[in-house]
Amino acid sequence: MPEHNLTVAAVGMPAAFDYSTLDESVARVARATAERIRANMIGAYVEIGRSLLDVKAQMVHGTFGAWIAAEFGWSDRTAQNYMSAAEWAEANSEIVSYLPPTAVYALSSPSTPEPARAKVIEAVRSGEAVTAKSVKEIVSTAKLQEREEAKRVREEERKAKLSPEQAKKEARSKANREKRRLQQIEEARRWREEQDRQTANAEKLATLILAVVAGDAEATALAADCDRHSLGFRIVSGLGGVR
Question: Is residue 178 scored above 80 in pLDDT?
Fold first, then answer.
C-alpha cells in the first residue's frame, strides 16, 4: 500500500474516545496504539487479499477454488472478498487506515453499490464520523435503492411491451384494486369509530351504575366473585340493550 502522511485531523476523522480525560503522555500513547492496532487489523485483510491474488495469478484456471477450500475451508466468495479488500484498500490508501476494518471489507465487496462507496469516502474527507454501523447502514440503504430502481426499470419495460388493449385492461384492474383498498380503509375506520363509541357508552353506563351501588357491601362482595362477561350481559339485557 502506498505510504501517506494523513493524520486524524487532516481528514477530519473525529475520535470516539475523549482523550482529553487522560494525561497528555498517556493520551499520546493510547491514540498511537489505537491507530496502530486499527492499521494492523486492516493490514491483515489487505495482506491476505494480496497473497491470494498473487497465488491465484500463478495457478491454472480451476485450481484456485480447490486450493482455498482445502487449505482454509473458504468458499470462492470469501476469498474474493479478501482480494477485493486488498484492491480497494490500495486504490483508496489516503483514507483506508481511518476506516473500521469491517467497513473496508464491506466497501470493497463486489455487491456494494458504487454510490455507497462514494458517500463513505466523502464523509471521511468532510470530517463526518464513520463507524462500522454507519457504513453498514449506508451500504444497506444503497442496495435497497438499487433494487427499487431495478424494479422500477423492469416495470417500465414490461409496460412498454403491452398492447393498447392490455394497457387499458391493466389500468382498469389497478383502479379496481385501489378502489377496494380505499373501501377497506373506510370500513376499518368506521369499525374503529363504532368500537370507540361503544366503549364510551360502556364507560358512561358503568359510571351511572356505580353512582347507585357505590358503597353497598353486598354489591361489592358480589362484584368480587362473579363472571364479568355474564354481569355485563345481564345488565345490558335488563336495560333493553340486547336485541
Answer: yes
